[in-house]
Amino acid sequence: MTDLEALSYFPDPAYTTKQFSSYDRNSTDAKVLTDENWFANGDRGKYLREETRNGEKEYVLMDAEGPGAIVRVWSANPVDAGVVRVYLDGADKPVVELPLTDMLGGSVAPFINPIANEVSKGWNSYLPIPYAKHCKVTTGKWDFYYHINYRTYEKGTSVKTFTSDLATEHREAIETVARTLAEPDAAINKLSGTRFDAEFFLSGGESSSNVYQSPRTAIHGMVCTVRSGKLEEVLRGSLLEIAFDGAEKPQICAPLGDFFGTAPGINPYASLSSGAMEDGVLYARWVMPFKEQV
């Protein structure tokens, strides 16, 4: 969950990523561009079906064959969902059973902050819930917004199904990931490898460039400080281009501020992959491999 270098490799084992959600089921035909069909936007309170268990109704949000893993659960209003239950591999008893607010709020193990938390008016959990054969997710109420993102692995992939004992066994790893995600700005102090420094003094319409030769390697981090009396204008008006291995067109072309995830101007934030610090330092830790030069 915190290995950015892994994003530069094809996944092994291979998987497809899909989503169950509360999208408006009236949206069925891309050729019928009406509010009653393709642009229907009542994306709340939709689910797959109802089931009755122990005399109580449960609303099925997800029903998927394995092997696979839930990798994200989101809701804008989990308080309206009641209890969430996760049934794995056809079991009658749920392996997860708690209020959805607890699952997504970050205060109940193993769904701990910030692997699970409320941010930007959305409640999320990124704790993986793997399953070998099948996964079904239900809630006790239905009138709420939700996404469930999940992976489906190739048939025959060996997956160890999630249990509370498995979560306890990996408690230390879960807590380590949580600490890393909780202090992402510390990442700029942990960049290793060969360091290249460059300083540019540019006026409007000017450009400058550098070429770095380093066979079979990768950019692992970039740190940038911009000094200008018109900071917002410069961050949006300066274009960053990066071309790998002599490409005719740059593989990266973006306004400088946008590349570091901040616009307009500098809006302080910190994530594992990028951030804008209070003192104006911008960083990005996307791993970008190349064969000969950049």
Describe this structure in words.
Helices cover 12% and strands 32% of the residues. The protein has helices spanning 100-105, 164-169, 171-182, 231-237, 256-259, and strands at 15-21, 49-53, 56-65, 68-75, 83-88, 96-99, 107-108, 111-112, 116-119, 122-125, 129-131, 134-139, 147-153, 217-219, 222-225, 239-242, 252-255, 269-270, 274-276, 281-284, 288-290. Strands 1, 4, 9, 10, 11 and 13 form a six-stranded antiparallel β-sheet that branches. The protein has a five-stranded antiparallel β-sheet with strand order 2-3-12-5-6. Strands 15-20-19-18 form a four-stranded antiparallel β-sheet, with no helix packed on it. It is globular and about 70 Å long. It starts with 14 loop residues before the first strand and ends with a strand.
Describe how the helices and strands are arranged.
Elements: E1 15-21, E2 49-53, E3 56-65, E4 68-75, E5 83-88, E6 96-99, H1 100-105, E7 107-108, E8 111-112, E9 116-119, E10 122-125, E11 129-131, E12 134-139, E13 147-153, H2 164-169, H3 171-182, E14 217-219, E15 222-225, H4 231-237, E16 239-242, E17 252-255, H5 256-259, E18 269-270, E19 274-276, E20 281-284, E21 288-290
Antiparallel strand pairs: 1-13, 2-3, 3-12, 4-10, 4-11, 4-13, 5-6, 5-12, 7-8, 9-10, 14-21, 15-20, 16-17, 18-19, 19-20
